[in-house]
C-alpha cells in the first residue's frame, strides 16, 4: 500500500506518471469538461504514504490557470503557489467525501474531473 499503490493505480488507468520533488508525482491531463476542456495540463499530487487510508491533498496544476487567492472557496479561492516552481499552482481542494468512496486513484481522478467541470 502507500504511495506505490497510488502510483500503480494511476498507471493502471493509463496515466504516464513521473516522480517530481518532495514526494509529488505528476502526469499529463486534459480536462474533459469545463472552461479548460481539452487543455494540455500537468497534474501533480502528493502520493500519501498511507494511501488508500488517506487521500492525496489537492492537485498541483501546470500551467497556472487561476489567480493566486489564499482565501475563499472553489472555484476561484484556495489557490496557492506550488513548491514545484513558478509555472505551477496548488489548488486547496481536499476530498472531504473520501470515506464515501472506494478510496482509489479512480476516485481521485473523478474528484479532479469535478473540479474542472465546475470551473
Features:
about 120 residues, alpha+beta, Ubiquitin Conjugating Enzyme, 6-stranded antiparallel beta sheet, about 20% strand
What's the tally of helices?
Answer: 2
Envelope shape: globular
In CATH terms, the superfamily is Ubiquitin Conjugating Enzyme
Describe the sheet with the most strands. 6 strands, antiparallel
> Would you state the CATH class?
Alpha Beta
**Strand order in the largest sheet:** 1-2-3-4-6-5
> What's the β-strand tally?
6
Could you estimate the helical fraction of the residues in percent?
10-25%
Mean pLDDT: 94
Would you kindly provide a brief summary of this structure?
Helix content is 19%, strand content 19%. It has 2 helices and 6 strands.
Topology:
Layout: H1 3-12, E1 18-19, E2 24-29, E3 41-46, E4 60-62, E5 79-81, E6 89-91, H2 105-117
Antiparallel strand pairs: 1-2, 2-3, 3-4, 4-6, 5-6
Give your account of this protein's structure.
With 119 residues, this protein is α+β, with helices and mostly antiparallel strands. The protein has a single domain (3-117), classed as Ubiquitin Conjugating Enzyme (Roll). Helix content is 19%, strand content 19%. It has 2 helices and 6 strands, in the order αββββββα.
Amino acid at each position: 500500500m502507500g504511495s506505490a499503490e497510488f502510483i500503480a493505480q494511476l498507471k493502471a488507468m493509463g496515466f504516464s506518471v513521473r516522480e517530481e520533488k518532495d514526494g509529488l508525482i505528476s502526469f499529463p491531463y486534459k480536462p474533459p469538461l469545463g472552461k479548460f476542456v481539452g487543455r494540455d495540463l500537468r497534474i501533480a499530487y502528493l502520493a500519501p504514504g498511507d494511501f488508500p487510508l488517506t487521500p492525496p491533498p489537492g492537485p498541483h496544476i501546470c500551467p497556472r490557470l487561476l489567480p493566486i487567492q489564499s482565501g475563499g472557496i472553489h472555484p476561484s479561492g484556495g489557490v496557492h503557489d506550488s513548491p514545484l516552481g513558478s509555472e505551477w499552482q496548488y489548488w486547496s481542494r481536499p476530498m472531504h467525501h473520501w470515506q464515501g468512496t472506494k478510496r482509489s486513484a479512480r476516485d481521485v481522478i473523478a474528484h479532479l474531473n469535478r473540479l474542472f467541470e465546475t470551473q
